[in-house]
What does this fold into?
Amino acid sequence: MKKMSLIHRKGQGMRFFLGIGMLFIWGGVMAREALGAENGGEGEISLWGTIAAGGMIGYLILCMSMVSISFIVQYFVVIRRERLLPGRVMKALAEHLDADKVEDAAALCEKDGSYLAQVVGAGLGQVGAMFGFFDMQNAMQEVSEREISKLHRKLEYLSFIATSAPMMGLLGTVTGMIASFNQIARTEGAARPSQLAGGISEALVTTCLGLIVAIPAMFFVAFFRNRIESYVAEAEAAVEKLMSRFRKPTVE
It folds into this structure.
């Protein structure tokens, strides 16, 4: 079991560094494509110049990227094993329950805010209830569903950014093309390429920025969702093992 847990932790660590590596690769590719080669001549446009070509919508998408990065960092801190399934708490609870110190175990659960402690604490609160272990199971299931729902709700913000960023890019595409066609209309079809470049740049840049923000955001939504499911399944197995002490053997 310890060996499997170690392998699981290594797998989580590899996925963590893979995700961070993808972020850096994404940022590097974006910067390289925007800046171009160093020896590209006098007409090269800087990264910020490219973003500025996206207009107000481009800046909004850039702000969304900053917010998404802050959420990703926060989720790496919050959605981790020691916050959901702390080993020290599991060990202490097992020691208290083995010694029939139910009150001490319940007090520990009240002090600790982890998923494991919240679920076990709900079950211990029903010790001595009318229907015994059945009431304990119902209380633990209710708290478990509530805590899992809280974890998934955290991801809704990042999921919203992943969904809305391409829509913002599409909005920039539409406004950019409208600006170009208005220029054509004002010049009665005799618009020079330089007069159309602003609207076309806005259309292309905002579309690109929207996809650059959305793709990593979608990846990390799936990454954290899988991490939650993995840790919750592991925590539920630990809860089952801890609370099996209160299950009365079936008399045949």
